[in-house]
Amino acid sequence: MMDHGPVPVTAPSARRTELAAFLRSRRDRVTPADVGMPPGLRRRTPGLRREEVALLSGIGVTWYTWLEQGRPINVSGRVLDAIADTLQLSDPEREHLYHLADVPIATVATSAARITPTVQAILDSMSGFPAAALNSRWDLLGWNTPCAALWPRLTAPDSSRNVLWELFTTPECCRRFVNRDTGLPHMVASFRAAFGQHLEDPSWTELIRRLAAASPEFARLWATHDVATPPSAIMTYRHAAIGDLSFSLTRLDLTATPETLITVWTPADEESKHRMDWLLAHPDAPSVDHTH
Questions:
Q1: SS3 279
Q2: Tell me, which fold does domain 14-101 have in CATH?
Q3: What does the pLDDT read at residue 286?
């Protein structure tokens, strides 16, 4: 009989083998004490048992065993998140887990609402213009002093820190975004385009549910299924003390932090620049002419 040599390993098989080895190595690293469990008796390794990982992750023991054995089973992003939480994976490890499982990365980019001190220093260095770090879900991750002057509600301690929530749920009497009719459809379309990469992320689906429930305007725009890149047109804001300010938006990619952009609002004309300078000199000036 002719020897045809070893059967070549296919890419999916190699991926599953690597996934199995990675899960075992991370499981061995987490002790019962790390997850608040008693050590128990007759433990052959200091790490968690398979059944303990399954229990803590809310999945079946057999199913997790098959996953760790490299069997060809389908896995959702929600289940991977639960396993990653149980195994206390770092963000790079969580992203690696998604790649090995061949599942679109659902939460790595948006799960942590934080930026590095270096990025905050960049924002602070732009002392004359509003600047902020935003992710693809329109969460406000960081900002500078001019941004706080322009968006006092959004940067307040009790704020949701989400631009879409601010724009769609603010009472009409307090709305400051002048060109809403053109700006909001484009923003929702870019949000829909980004959502395509996060279909199984519960934080995204919950935000969409809340927005649609709170704002008929958002629900209508979301139902169009329009998609677009993030808007870069002139945006105009109205301030009770100084009138309208128009800005050109510039977005800078942060390659070290996927799906996070630095957005800079540059005054679009001399009058807007003078008004922004006045606003920085009078940070306590009320942005609306009434209170609730």
A1: helix
A2: 434 Repressor (Amino-terminal Domain) (1.10.260)
A3: 77
Residue 276: which residues within 8 A CB-CB, separation 6 or more? 128, 129, 130, 146, 150, 245, 267
Distance CA 115, CA 107 (A): 16
CA 277 remoteness from chain centre:
32
The answer to whether the beta carbons of residues 245 and 288 sit under 8 Å apart is: no
Backbone angles phi, psi at 238, to 5 degrees: -110, 125
> What is the pTM for the complete model shown?
0.62
What's the CA dihedral at 183, 116, 110, 69 to 10 degrees? 160
* Mean pLDDT in order along the chain per 10 residues (292 residues): 37 78 92 80 78 90 90 81 89 84 59 74 94 93 92 77 91 82 93 87 88 95 91 87 94 82 95 95 75 56
Q: Are 113 and 136 in contact (CB under 8 A)?
A: no
Do domains 14-101 and 117-281 share one topology? The answer is no
First to last CA, the chain: 88
CATH topology assigned to domain 117-281: Beta-Lactamase (3.30.450)
CA–CA distances in Å: residue 6 to residues 1, 9, 18, 158: 14, 9, 19, 63
Nearest to 22 by CA among 101, 79, 105, 108: 101
Identify the helix (H) or strand (E) that includes residue 205.
helix 202-214
In contact, 108 and 91? CB cutoff 8 Å:
yes
CB 218 within 8 A of CB 212: yes
Selection from 72, 76, 113, 69 nearest residue 91 by Cα: 113
pLDDT at 147: 94
Delimit the domains of the chain by residue range: 14-101, 117-281
Residue 240, helix vs strand vs coil:
coil
Q: What is the pLDDT of residue 233?
A: 78
What is the rounded CA–CA span in Å between residue 43 and residue 92? 29
